[in-house]
Amino acid sequence: MAPEPPLLTMSGITKLFPGVRALDGVALEVQAGEVHCLLGQNGAGKSTLIKVLAGAHQPDDGEITWRGETVQLKSPIAAMRLGVATIYQELDLVEGLSVAENVFLGHEPTSAGFIVRTREGRLAAKALLARLGHPEIDPARPVGDLSAAQQQIVSMARALSHDVRLIVMDEPSAALDPDEVDNLFRIVDSLTADGVAVVYISHRLEEIRRIGDRVTVFKDGRTVAVGLPAADTPTRDIVAMMTGRDVAYVFPPRPEEPAAATAEPVLRVQGLSRKGEFAPVDLELRPGEIVGLAGLVGSGRSEILETIYGARRASTGTVTVAGEQLRPGSVRRLI
Fold it and tell me: In the chain, fewer beta carbons within 10 Å around the N or the C end?
């Protein structure tokens, strides 16, 4: 008896943009019921490839086969009808619509072909949310009122509202705390037990060890490894493939006493806040220094930086650059 062909095979996929070869003959092979991890640095081509798989981009060259048959994914609708759902890192939800309306957007339960059956949609959405471990989310609530983590659950429920055989998850844990990550992995385990394949994109290599079956690595728009066993491939080797350098050279040794420790700050932020977005923040940055700003998606990191930059008007606080205090909204002055 002949073995089953892979659920999905992408081979020789090329995508050109003006002045950029985003994908240069890349390959990906996914089996039914597996978690296939797609790795690579920012700009390696991962997002472009999943947009080709989602039907949002058309490849300039290459072939896509689904269960052994060549297919053309000319639109996101064509990909969804085939059984491919994509959950992007930047969620594509309609904040003014309810949870249930987002879950069934474009395929609402109807009577006589045009009368939307609201109650039926809410009950079905509630069942999907319960399957995802979040029965507390109200299907009638506007999506814009939910947290970033809850919005991601709604996006996953929307994917499951279709007859999907492959789900692409782009950085799904970025907006989640540790307990929510555990729930995400429980969901993924449940999906793969039902034969659904998951393409999982993450920069957190510890997650790959925990959940992945196989790994494909991209670098600079090219495939450098296809289908490596996730459990048996050393992290050192994965990092080397992603960066093109041995891991020993990725993080050079720190000096004993950085010069920045005694230098005057080039940037000083004092008591900076925006009502309803973030509480007062103090921050100093010295020459040659890297300061990390950490937090989950939706925690206010971008808003803080945009306010420092002057793209948002602060409610309180000051921003001083090289000893000069800047007036509010001074983007031009900062440039």
Answer: N
Q: Are 23 and 10 in contact (CB under 8 A)?
A: no
Hey, which residues does 321 pair with through a beta bridge?
267, 324
Pick from 96, 4, 93, 87: which is nearest to 51 by CA? 87
* Amino acid sitting at position 172: P
C-alpha–C-alpha distance, residues 53 and 47, integer Å: 10
Note if the pTM is more than 0.90: no
What are the φ and ψ backbone dihedral angles of 37, each rounded to 5 degrees?
Answer: -90, 130
Residues 55-110 have pLDDT tens digits of: 999 999 999 999 999 999 999 999 999 999 998 877 789 999 999 999 998 888 87
CA-to-CA dists, residue 302 to 295, 298, 310, angstroms: 10, 8, 12
Buried-state track 121-142, b at ≥16 Cβ within 10 A, e below 16: bbebbbebbeebebeebbbeee
Residue whose token pair is 């670098």: 219
- Whether the CB-CB separation of 185 and 154 falls below 8 Å is answered with no
Q: What distance in Å separates the CA atoms of residue 54 and residue 47, rounded to the nearest whole number? A: 10
User: Which residues, other chains included, contact 184 with Cβ-Cβ below 8 Å and sequence gap of 6+?
Assistant: 172, 173, 176
Residue in the structure block whose two tokens are 């009950």:
123
Cα 62 from Cα 64, distance rounded (Å): 7
Q: Determine which helix (DSSP H) or strand (DSSP E) holds 70, and give its type and residue range.
A: strand 69-71
Q: What CA–CA distances, in Å, run from 194 to 138, 165, 182?
A: 26, 9, 19
CA-CA-CA-CA dihedral for 251, 254, 259, 262, to nearest 10 = 110
Structure tokens, 207? 């997650």
Residue 98 DSSP code: B
SS3 142: strand
Q: 211, 202 in Cβ contact below 8 A?
A: no
| Distance separating alpha carbons of residues 103 and 289, to the nearest angstrom | 45
